[in-house]
Amino acid sequence: MLSSSRRRQASLAALALTSSLALAACGGGGFEEEGGSDPASSGDGPAELQVLIGSSGDAETQAVEEAAQAWAEESGNEVEVIVANDIAQQLSQGFAGGNPPDLFYVDAGVFGDYAEAGNLYPYLDQMADADDFYPNLVDSFTLDDQAYCAPKDFSTLALQINTEAWKKAGLTDADVPTTWDELETVAQQLTTPDQAGLVLGLGRDRVGAFLVQNGGFWVDGEAGEATATEPTNAEALEYVQGLLDSGSAVLAPDVDAGWGGEAFGTQKAAMTIEGNWIRGAMENDYPDVDYTVAELPEGPAGKGTLLFTQCWGIAADSPNQEAAVSLVEAMTTAEQQLTNAEAFGVMPSRESAQADYVEQFPQDAPFIAGGDYGQGPVNLPGLGPVVADLDSQLEQLKTADVNDILESFQQNAEAELK
After folding, report:
1. Are residues 49 and 169 in the same domain?
2. For 328-373, what is each residue's pLDDT tens digit?
3. Residue 324 and residue 388 in one domain
4. Nearest to 130 by CA among 312, 346, 322
5. Kindly report the CA angle at 46 between 45 and 50, in degrees rounded to 5?
6. What gap in Å lies between CA 50 and CA 100, rounded to an integer?
7. Rounded to two decimals, what is the model's pTM?
8. Closest CA to 78 of 97, 51, 100
9. Domain match, 176 and 147 both
10. How far apart are CA 218 and CA 226, in angstroms?
11. Most distant CA pair in the chain, distance
12. Number of compact structural domains in the chain
């Protein structure tokens, strides 16, 4: 169990580290009266917004810049998009100095820390069409019953299947697994001396899906409580342990792979469980590997997957909050999200964009279906080091006592959440 001083130091360090997944913001205070034709700002003249992003590459940067400039021309405001070099450091400095960017990406995993620290302006209830965002995504940015920010996009986990290996094993479309028992069966059938039936990535961001499928999870975000020691969680980890013990599944490092996508692309795995980001890796690095994607098999409690998402955060200290909300509205229209999907491969966070997205990217239908039943990450404040410790323990899942893993997380999480 982590000592209080070590927890405090580790929490700050974890926040700084995981902030690199999020994106920063800058600003201040009040609102103009509605009804005028003046630009949306908090003071005299047009607003000058800073938007700090942690971009995945040139395509994302260009898409954000073009959308921001279109809004600026329409609204009469000014906007500067800044690509962070070190998002954790820049965000920390901005918050500490009272001059953060107005608008920034916030990763769901660090949202709770930012919200509890008072760094975020809760604005989602100001958006007229806020109920169009997937409820599970909104839950990822909710603390103490307050929904803060608009989800900008999301990813989920699904099952990838090597088409050639599937045919060689004598399997057909009718054999695509829809239950845990079926997953175990086909994993065994696909296992050969040269190829694992199923390769799993390390940590909670993969095996956590099995907890959801069994009706459990590490925490109850709404109640603000750790729930790791619920029996359903032990049952889920024991199921995964059984796959590993039988040899029908292995962890990525056991086949000298850094993640499931690498094992799958190099054909050391006939199946893996990864997010929709695997599409880019397969197209770029393994274009000759033919594969298909299916929703994750249901567990005893039904369907379950994990959600990975970021929102558009607005700084509590921003003097341009009204204009920032207006920019978020422009950035999150269904049309803009579909443009982003085409530009850099993200899935829209609006339910109204689902049909058009699936029509445009039919191969991603299993991924986007998870938006209806997926579970967001652990987002309660102060749990960064506790989650990091959990990941470390899960690396030894094949031989570990699952109850020891869950008890350790429960005790450390409860100590932080007091």
Report:
1. no
2. 999 999 999 999 999 999 999 999 999 999 999 999 999 999 999 9
3. no
4. 312
5. 135
6. 9
7. 0.88
8. 51
9. no
10. 6
11. 71
12. 2
Under a CB-based contact definition with an 8 Å cutoff, are residues 401 and 29 in contact? no
- The closest of 90, 61, 62, 65 to 80, measured between CA atoms, is 65
CA dist., res. 398 & res. 199, Å (int): 13
Q: Do 208 and 336 belong to one domain? A: no
> Which has the closest alpha carbon to 296: 358, 211, 403?
211
DSSP state of 292: E
Q: Are residues 363 and 216 in the same domain?
A: no
**CATH number, domain with residue 242:** 3.40.190.10
**Exposure b/e, 110-131, CB count within 10 A at least 16 = b:** bbbbbbeeebbbbbbebbeeee
Full domain range(s) for residue 76:
4-154+308-372
pLDDT in tens, 226-239: 999 999 999 999 99
pLDDT in tens, 183-197: 999 999 999 999 999
Which helix (H) or strand (E) segment is 200 a member of? strand 198-200
Helix axes 58-75 and 334-344, enclosed angle (nearest 10): 150
Co-location of 358 and 319 in the same domain: yes
Q: Is 104 helix (H, G, I), strand (E, B) or coil?
A: strand
Give dist(CA 282, CA 272) in Å, integer. Answer: 13
DSSP run (H or E) holding 337: helix 334-344
pLDDT band at 44 (very low <50, low <70, confident <90, very high): low
